[in-house]
Every structure is written in structure tokens, then in C-alpha cells.
Specification:
7 helices, 8-stranded mixed beta sheet, 298 residues
Length: 298
Amino acid sequence: MKTPSLLKTFAAVALFSTALFATTQVPAQEKVELWPNLAPNETVREPNVENPAGSARRVTTPYLLIFQPEKKTSDVCVLTIPGGGFNTCFYGEEGIPNAKFWNSKGYVSAVLVYRAPRPASGPIYAPALQDARRAIRYLRANAPKLGIDPNKIGAQGYSAGACLTLLAATNSETEVYEPVDELDKTPANLNFAIPIYPAYVLTDGATDPNANKGEGAEILSDFRFDAKTPPLCLVHGDADIYSPLGSVEVYKKLRKLGIPCELHVYAGAPHGFMFWNDKPNAADWQERCAAWLKKIGF
């Protein structure tokens, strides 16, 4: 059960981020349903339950929103994967504004609205990971139409979406659903990944905030680091209820494997620090991500 203080924190995030969305909402140039009929393991096609602020609390028909920049200067595509604890998909707060940031840098961007809420059994991320893999395949297969390089597709995720970004980055050689059409012959690996305050990374905190602040915990075996694991840039706050030690342990793992990785941990920054304007030391976090992306050649 969340404490009253945490409830107040989450309420503040919701109020601030809804206001943020109201000033940044821009219609996507294209909306793409990810599956030709029903998504895997879905039995009924039902309308998604979403509100005007961009909060989807029930999604059975996942989709992509595609955003093209006014002045295109790159053939890179950044896929944004919003958070929401795998119970909601906050694509208005942690999706569309992020897509517009990358558009402002000249990049093509997309936002994934994945299935929610969590399944009643099995991994909490299972349906969402299927959607993420399908989204990556769609972007790669449609690279010529979108004006992107099929080998320059990455993802930036937040909280549960950052967990999903890590799963997509580290498990690309492990199939998570049965192929449904020709699109599923397309590789689903990422070429780079930017997890922002990832949740559900450690054995302490596999489904909820870390009970022991992540101390002495290990990376969950769900994250299978393989030959196609790409360069990563990890960003976290050291006051996060989802311990920054998750990001630290991922950094250590990648360092051992010789995979390029950058890590930023901001002092005093809480979960969702992007929504607090009283954290000036973390204000340039997004520019740091953009600088890293340029540094690795994207």
C-alpha cells in the first residue's frame, strides 16, 4: 500500500504533468495499430479507455503515434515508451512531450501506447513487451516510408517504460510471441536505449518500489544481456523510490560486457524528477541524453 506522502507525490506529478501536456499536445501525423486483428492472448476487441490528457488505463488495442520534425536533420528514430506501473500508459505526460523534444532536434519520433493494466498472472510486463517488440519491427520495416535508417532505431522509456526499454534492449534474441505475419520476420533489436528512472529492475523491487532501497539486490534474470544489447544511457535520481541502484547495476553489467554505457544519477531528484521545477541540478537531463546520442554517432 502506498503511504500518504507517496500518494501526494503521485498526485503532484499527475497535476503538473497534465498541465504540461495541455501546453505541448500536438497531433501525431500518423496513428498505427500494431496488430492486424487481436493482440496476442486478447480474446475480445474492446475500445481503449483513455482520457483527453493522454492517460490510458485500459488498452487492448495498442498503437504507435508517429511524429515527424518540421526540420528533419537526422535519419534516426527515437521510440518513446511511457511509464505507468504497467497499470496505466501515461503517453500524454511521458510520451508526446518527449517525442516533440526529439522532433526539435531534427529526429523522427514515435510514442508507444502499450497494453494495460498488468496481466493477472505471469510477468507484469509480458503484453507490453510484445507490443514494444512489434513496434520496433514496424518502425524498421517501414523505415523508407518514415525517412529513417533501419539501423538507427532506439528507445527512450520512463519508469515502467524504462523497464520495458531495458527488456527490449537486452532480450532481442528471445522471442516473446508467435509470429502473426510477414512483419514479424523483421529484427526487433534496438540500436540504442535510454532508460529514464527504470523501475522493476532488481530482485528487491520486481513488482513494486524497492523495499530495501535496492541494497544487496541483483538484476532480475528477466533481463537477458545478449550479443545485440546496444549502447545505453541511464538516467536516475538518487531520491527515487525505485532505487537508482537498478541503473547502477545495469551500468556495471554493461561495463563488464564491454558495451558502451553512460550513467547520470542526480542528487536529490525523486521519481519523475522531470516534472519538478525545483530540481535545477537535473534540469538538463534531456540535453545530456541528446549529447550522448550524438557522441555515439546518432
